[in-house]
Amino acid sequence: MTIGTMANRAKRVVALAALIAFCALLLAPGANAAAAKRLSLDDIVGDYIYADTDEGYTNWTSFEKEGNKLVEVFENGGKTYRAEYKYNPATGVATMYEHEYIVTQTLTFARVGEAIGYSTEETTHDPDDPSGAFRYFGFKLPEAEAEIPIDEIVGTYEYQGPGSKVVHRMEMVRSGNKLIARWEDGGENVYDYDPEFAEADKLTKGKNNRFVLTAWSFSKNDGVMEVFIQESDIIRNKSCTLSTFRGQKINLVGSGGPAAEFSTEALPKLADFQWYINDIQKTGSPQNLKGVKHIKDFELIKGGWKGIVFDNDANLAKSGYISTFNLEISGSEKSVKLTPDWYRDYNSFNEKDVRGDASDTEPFEGRWTVGRDYGFVKAEDSGGDNALTVAMFYELNGKQYALGILTWWDGWETYVALVRP
């Protein structure tokens, strides 16, 4: 399911949405009193996010308890305001009459699965102001346990809906201070992220006065990053259906762990590439090695690698040219950056240390593509003179490997092997 685009991507949503059983409740003043009876003032207290569908943006508000009153605290124009409501736990409805503006404000709260949703209806009684009633819709946000930096959010997540046994995956990547969710159906959504509250949200406008308000709330449980997702499908000024589900960040690649566990800054030695002679030259392809696990997730190749370039793929030891380097892989699937740090050249004349040459750290930039068996990167330097293609990433016996070709400006093709840690 593509979160936040239900109104615009109905065709893509159907396949996944049919697999996820959501709890849903139509929120309108006075609706579903039986569910609302379970909500006390203590249940309601907390921070909420709501959609202003008239202006097309999201806003936050907070509710506090003072005796038997419900107090709303919110900011507007840099000032903090308070509004007191009389709350009826039997109906889940809180009301306030503003004499100054001749307005009745009605809030309706209801429990929806794990969530608490609410609607607010404001009715003007001034005969000189025929604007009538309008409604906002929103839901309560989980209390943030601690600030979570955006880089800790990035990764692969698995999620499933209540009552569903079907597990889906999505990728969460970073773009500045925003998070980009990439879904199984190929869609993606961009969210504003607030590290202080470990929360990301987005309001998406659809057709026929429909809006989708989505909020992601992140937390850590025994070191595992978890996410609680709430989504309101809103028909402007009329109704709202609230859906919830949970997910958690996972580590991929069977015998290994996340990319950080493999990443290395150690300087490469020729002995680090004996595996190429033993495995690749003898078998012809990683496909023929027992226990190979293909890597198709870009997040799992990020970080530092040890690399070697040589000109004889049939016999590395007899290559006339060999050069070792460190390689840093960063960026996103659509904007991959491969930054080499050349270390040592070997040829028939001498062995030369080439560290510290700034001209030899120019990055290659390209994109990540997933083929039938492997993920691969095709990249070029800034001038488009030299091209680096790393066509096979795989894991074997607790290490990660990759094979590729470096084509120089004059058409000379050399071979690349990467390993870590």
Describe this structure in words.
The protein is mainly β. The chain has two domains: 241 residues, no CATH class; 162 residues, Porin, CATH 2.40.160. It contains six helices and 26 strands. The strands form three sheets. The chain has an eight-stranded antiparallel β-barrel. Strands 9-10-11-12-13-14-15-16 form an eight-stranded antiparallel β-barrel. The protein has an eight-stranded antiparallel barrel with strand order 18-19-20-22-23-24-25-26. The chain is elongated.
List the helices and strands and how they pair.
Blueprint: H1 10-17, H2 33-36, H3 41-44, E1 46-52, E2 57-66, E3 69-76, E4 79-88, E5 93-98, E6 103-112, E7 115-124, E8 133-140, H4 150-153, E9 155-160, E10 168-175, E11 178-183, E12 188-194, E13 199-205, E14 210-221, E15 224-235, E16 239-250, H5 259-262, H6 274-283, E17 293-294, E18 303-310, E19 321-332, E20 335-347, E21 351-353, E22 364-370, E23 375-380, E24 387-396, E25 399-407, E26 413-420
Antiparallel strand pairs: 1-2, 1-8, 2-3, 3-4, 4-5, 5-6, 6-7, 7-8, 9-10, 9-16, 10-11, 11-12, 12-13, 13-14, 14-15, 15-16, 17-24, 18-19, 18-26, 19-20, 20-21, 20-22, 22-23, 23-24, 24-25, 25-26
